[in-house]
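Below is a filled-in request sheet from our internal design queue. Each sheet records the structural input a requester submitted and the sequence that came back. We keep these sheets so that new team members can see what a complete request looks like end to end.

REQUESTER: design group, bay 2
PRIORITY: normal
MODE: inverse folding
CHAIN LENGTH: 261
BACKBONE (tokenized):
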């Protein structure tokens, strides 16, 4: 999902759904932590193709899946015709009714104006309502980010023009923002989660083609494949061990409640 003036990568929702299922699998126990119950309404913020929304619904809760990308929402509606999906900006959305819980997995780092997102989440939640989120944390995929900027520099793109489409906050920074925005933190963790790309036929190249399109904006399309190939070469010595890609993900996971007063 993406918002905030940073153009969305133009998601290939079908390929994402089929090959990037590991993102959903790795975040799956967030649903358990949120613990949706029959009779509740839960918002899945940055729902992508709707896999987690379907899990929430399977627990008997009503679910609203929200994503800013029309292709993701179209895919979610087709895959889960009984569920409610909304195409809206995560930094500015308003729901018709307040919900009992919000879950967000691997989406909030695409929204680079966190205070707006937190404001929208606080508006959407009932007082005492639960929030369970996981996103990239400080130095998430740092080897990849450093390689991308090195390749952009080599290609002659000045630093002032390097795109910054991802927001990977420190634990204290994000918790402070949440507290200022009307949430009480119950649990918060920042942890390493080296993530294998075994599901991807073309490993890191496939991962880059899915996710780094916003970084390529300063260069003409005919140069994009060469940039991706250079980033693969630069990251290989540290992230590819015995032919297996393991990306240096770092996750920020927070459980919180909206303040009662
Ligand atoms: C993440 O889930 O941490 C992530 C995925 C793609 C690009 C950036 C971050």
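RETURNED SEQUENCE:
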């Amino acid at each position: 999902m993406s918002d905030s003036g940073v153009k969305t990568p133009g998601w290939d929702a079908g390929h994402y759904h089929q090959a990037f299922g590991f993102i959903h699998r790795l975040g799956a126990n967030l649903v358990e932590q949120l613990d949706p119950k029959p009779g509740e309404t839960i918002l899945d913020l940055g729902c992508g193709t709707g896999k987690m929304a379907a899990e929430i619904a399977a627990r008997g809760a009503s679910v609203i899946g929200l994503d800013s990308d029309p292709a993701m929402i179209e895919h979610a509606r087709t895959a889960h015709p009984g569920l409610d999906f909304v195409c809206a900006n995560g930094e500015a959305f308003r729901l018709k009714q307040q919900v009992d819980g919000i879950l967000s997995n691997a989406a909030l780092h695409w929204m680079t104006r966190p205070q707006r997102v937190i404001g929208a989440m606080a508006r959407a939640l009932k007082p005492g309502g639960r929030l369970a989120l996981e996103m990239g944390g400080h130095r998430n995929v740092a080897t990849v980010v450093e390689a991308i900027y090195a390749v952009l520099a080599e290609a002659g793109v000045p630093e002032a023009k390097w795109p910054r489409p991802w927001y990977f906050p420190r634990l204290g920074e994000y918790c402070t923002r949440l507290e200022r925005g009307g949430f009480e933190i119950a649990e918060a963790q920042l942890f390493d989660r080296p993530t294998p790309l075994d599901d991807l036929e073309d490993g890191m190249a496939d991962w880059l083609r899915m996710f780094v399109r916003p970084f390529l904006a300063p260069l003409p399309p005919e140069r994009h494949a060469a940039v991706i190939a250079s980033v693969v070469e630069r990251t290989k010595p540290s992230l590819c061990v015995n032919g297996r890609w393991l990306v240096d993900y770092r996750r920020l996971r927070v459980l919180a409640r909206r303040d009662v007063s």
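SHEET NOTES:
- Strands lie at 41-45, 62-67, 84-87, 99-105, 125-136, 183-196, 240-241, 244-258.
- The two ends are 31 Å apart (CA to CA).
FILED BY: M.R.
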